[in-house]
Each structure stands twice: as C-alpha cells, then as structure tokens.
Amino acid sequence: MNGSDVTISRVGKSFGSFAALDDVSLDIRKGEFFSLLGPSGCGKTTLLRILGGFEVPDEGTVAIDGVDVVGLSADKRRTNTVFQSYALFPHLSIFENVAFPLRLRKVPPKVLSSRVKDYLALVQLEAHADKMPAQLSGGQKQRVAIARALINEPSVLLLDEPLSALDAKLRQHMLVELDSIHDKVGITFIYVTHDQGEALSVSDRIAVMNQGKVLQVGPPHEIYEDPATDFVARFIGETNLFRGAVVRSEGLLATVAIPEVGEVLVTTDDPVPAGSSVSFAVRPEKIRIAAQKPAAARKDLNVVKGAVDEPIYSGFQTKFYVRTEKGVTFKVFKQHADYSDKGPEIKWRQEVFLSWSAEDGTLVEVARP
Amino acid sequence: MTARPTKGGALYALPNALWLTFFFLAPLLIIVAYSFMKKGLYGGVENEFSLRAYALLANAGIVKVAFRTLLVALAATALTILIALPVGYNMARSKNQTLKLFLVIVPFWTNFLIRIYAWIAILGNEGTINGFLRSVGLISDPIHLMYNQGAVILVLVYMYLPYAVLPLFSTMDKFDFILLDAARDLGAGKLESIVKVMLPNVRSGLVTAVLFTFIPIFGAYAVPLLVGGKDGYMLGNVIADQVMKVRDWPFASSISMVVTFVSTIGVLLFLARQKRPGVSKEQAAALAAEAAVAAGGGR
Ligand SMILES: Nc1ncnc2c1ncn2[C@@H]1O[C@H](COP(=O)(O)OP(=O)(O)O)[C@@H](O)[C@H]1O
Ligand SMILES: [Mg+2]
Fold first, then answer.
1. CATH 3.40.1550.20 fits A238-367, yes or no
2. Ligand 2 center to residue A45 CA distance, Å?
3. pTM (2 d.p.)
4. Rounded to an integer, what distance in angstroms lies between the CA atom of residue B152 and that of residue B154?
C-alpha cells in the first residue's frame, strides 16, 4: 500500500451562522501519522468528515495527491474512516462486516475469504470471525472497524477518536497497536483526538485546533516545548503561564517583569526587544523544589520563594502546588526516579524555594512594540 | 422480553383475557360455528350441521373475486410500502419530527367514510380533477376515474399509508444513520447503502408495516364498495352482500373463514421467514389478533 499527500487549503465550513471551521490549511505528507488535536467542539470531526467525503466545505479545497476531491462522494475516494462509534453493521457477522467492501466490488469468493482472513489476522481477531458485533468488547469492535477500513487498501485512513470509548489501560494498548499497524501498512493516518497524551505519543506531527482554527502544526516535542499560543501551552500538558512584559534584552536573554512573580530570566530563539508584551511559560517538571535556597552560583537561575499548599503523591512523582508570597500558585512535579528516593520529604505548609534555569522557560505570544 | 413470574400475574392479565374472550374469541367462534350450519329462511342459521357453505366457495365467481382481492391487496400493500419508506426515512432524519408526525396523524381526526367521500369528490365525473381539466379545455367529456380497480388501489393506499409510515418511522428513528456513512465510505452507492445496510436494520418496522397494511386491505369493504363499482368488488363486499341481501349467513361465514385463513397464514409464512429476531413475540401476537379482527370486521 502507498500513502497519499493530503493538502487542505483555506477550508471553511459553517452550520447556520456558526463557523465550525475557519480558514484551515494543512499539508499532510505521504505516510505520515498526523493528529488533529483540540478540545471537544473545535471542529475536528467536521474536518475529518470533509476529508472523508461526508461534508462539502463552504470554502477552500481538499486535494489528495494533488487531485481536488471536493466533488467526490465518499465511495469514490481512496480514504476510509474508522468512526468514533465504530459503526459496525449490527446485522452482519464480523467476517461479513470486514468482507462488506469486497462484496460490493464482487470480489471472487476465494480471494475474498483469504483477504478477509488476512485483515482479521492483522487485528488479531481470526477467532471471532463468526460472531456478531454485539458479542464483542469495545476493544474488539474497534479492531473490526480498523480491519474493515483497511481492507479496501485506502491511501489515507481517517480515525475519529477511535480510542475514546475504551478504558485507560486498553487505550494505551490499542495506541501501541495502532502505531504498529501504521508501520505495517505504511499509509497516511489522520487521527482525531482530544487527548493530548495520545497525540503526543504516536504522532509524527500534530495540528492543534481550537474554535475552528488551526493554532499550531508541528512535531510533538515542538508543540510541547515551544507552544505558539497561550491556548496551546495550556492545552498540551500542564504549565505555569503568566502575562508580562520584557524589560531588558541582551541578545538571546530577556528579562520579563511579571506582576505576580517578579523579574524572570528567559532565553529566546531570536532577540525580543524590551517593551514587548509576552506570555511566559515554564513546565512543572522543569522546576526544582528545595527546602533550602539554592547557592547563588549561577546568575541565570530564577528563584521564587513560596509555601506548599498541597503535595499530591502519585508513586512515580509528587505534584506540589506552591503558593508564592505574592499569592500565585505554581505547579511543580518532582520525579521519584531512583530507589533511594523515599518520596516527598517536603511537607504541607513548608516554606520552599522554586528554581529553574533561563533555558527552561519559554516565551509565548510575543507582541513586539 | 422474558416475562418474570410474579404472584399477581394471572390477576393482572384478567381484564385483557376477558376483553379478548368477549370481543375477539367469541365472535370468531360464532363465525366458525355458523359456517358449518344450514341457512335460515330469512337470514340467521338453522341448528343443523352442513358443509354447503364450503361447497359454495368453489363457485367460479367467488374464486375470481378472491384472486382479485389478493391482487389488489398485494398491489396496494406494495405501493403503500414504496411510498412509506421514503416518508419514514425523511421523518426519521428530520428536525421537525413532531410536526411531521402530527401531519401523518391528522387524517385520523376525520371519519373514515368521510375521507372516502372526499375521494369521490376528487375523482368523480363532476369531481375536482374532471372539473379542472374541463375548465382548462383539455377535455369535454369526463374521464372515468372512479369505479375501477385503480381507484380502489389509490384510495386504499391513501387510507393505509399512515399504518405503514408509523412503524417504519419508529424503527428508522432508532437507526444509527452513521451506518449509512460507513457503507458509503466502504464503497456503496446511495441506494446500495440503503438496501444493504438500512433495510436489514429496520426489518421489524418493515414487517409490521407490511402486515398492518396487507391484512386490513385484504378484508377491505367500504373502499371497494364506494369507489370500486362492479370491477372493484372484493371479498369483503361479497360477505356483506351475503349477510344483508342474500341473507345467507353460513355462506358469509365460510367466506370470512377464507379471509381469516389467508390473512393468518400469510402472517405466519411472513413471520417464519424472519429468522432473526426482527419481530418480537408480542408483536407477532398483536399481528395475529389484528389479522383475525380485520378478517372478521372488515371496513
Ligand atoms: N451537522 C451539524 N449541524 C450543526 N452544527 C454542527 C453539525 N456538525 C457539527 N456541528 C457543530 O460544529 C462544531 C464542531 O463540531 P465537531 O466537528 O463535531 O467538533 P469536534 O469533533 O472537534 O468535537 C460543534 O459546535 C458542533 O455543534
Ligand atoms: Mg468529534
């Protein structure tokens, strides 16, 4: 099988006066595992339905391998969809569900039977061929839906929150399985999810969406480490985010004045002039927490004093909510990495010092003067 | 559904049992009994066993009417279902379900006979259609739209359409329309997706719709009487004639038995073909009762 490029240009779609998609452009590459990530109602399904041929965009074009497909109905496209609710045909056995596309094309019985078996094997369901959909568990239904969507050898597979109905353990397992299926078949996967953890762990690239717009497109680490907007910074993982203004700038080192925190040093990718208004973000796992003030050996170290509001122990890590003297709360994650670590020795209400280096913070939404 | 045995069960079922006995079982038994008796001189029966009423069934005229009745009922049922399918589909996908449901039910507020007379007013020689065609100068002599089998089928379809639409709508309303998207996605055309995915999944509604139309149409009486003329005569009319004009009650009863048998056997054959649990037991029971009522009552 071969994947296809998918080019979405300036697509808009409204329902009544409500704009579900607003000027969406994306370049998805052959064979890529591409995720559309955003909160519920942001237009992910609408975009996927436009790609699948179930909705027609009001504006813009969709091209698969350079060919405009907007006028083609779903049955004429080389895309197949794994629906959120699986959409298995309840009146057909598992075998017949997977065979459905082949029967439509009048594939000879021998070929059909062996093809169906191959695809059931791909999703490890050979033993369940004769069951009815109602007899399967959620995870099994999910796999039937995947086999059925792949048997036509599409060049693009569209997956709409395929794991959302599964429990957490199974979700992890299916995610790994999806990834390995993607490696095996090698076609383009476009994967819709509202779960940032899922998107970060399997995607080659992610498009973060909100309110019908694409906010940022990039590989997972870029989305995580270098969010383009406040929304992205908050939506992906957890973060400490403050509005402030650059007061000094020396090359790639900026000093940001944040009313609730004080002055903070941060390195930037390109020079940010004094007077710029910015958001400053630092991830909770990048902050060190200690009972003693760190020795002031490094001048690029940011130090904030506070008191522990709430320590939350969860085995591999402890989450601290630390309230500063000026009354803002920082989230800090401390990993319990080795055996000698006896868990949190920092207690409730204890006075602590938070510190992070200038490289660990990042500036978001820079508005130059 | 499985009935859970409870102590008061039999007691709760009593009103239903009484109702069925008095209004359904008793009349049916009387008809069975009459069909095996001798004809009274001025109507009624004489208390004496006889197979005469069944021998009379072999009469060529009766056989002809029986076949015509079957053909008319099959044609009218087929047409009704063909119209009801898209109507039910449209209602199930509509945002104004309540309004559309209301529109389907509205005709029931007008008396059955009055609605037939309305059709006479439309189809008659001096009716709306002929009047219009004459006024625009297309015709000078009226076209005979009434008193033929076509008129009977037309009015029957009109009368029984809601009985087909309602069960179809109620099952289609529960149908997950994403399945149609899935079928299209996998390569099915529009019609193909409906035939291969939707119809099998709304089968129970389809079965109900077929039976709710076929059974009463097979026993139809008033429609063929008023718009059918001699060519439109159906078994229901022959029964009425035997009771009211010829006063041969046993013969009327034996014809009724034929109607009951065709309806009931039709139902059973139809249900037997439903291998999957498309029709529940309660539904089957309701339909069997309906069959017998239609055959006995006929309107
Ligand atoms: N057929 C429709 N009619 C009206 N509004 C719709 C329709 N489909 C989607 N919407 C609206 O468009 C928005 C985006 O929906 P959707 O694409 O399903 O979001 P997501 O999949 O990201 O949760 C939602 O606010 C939803 O209510
Ligand atoms: Mg969605």
1. no
2. 4
3. 0.85
4. 5
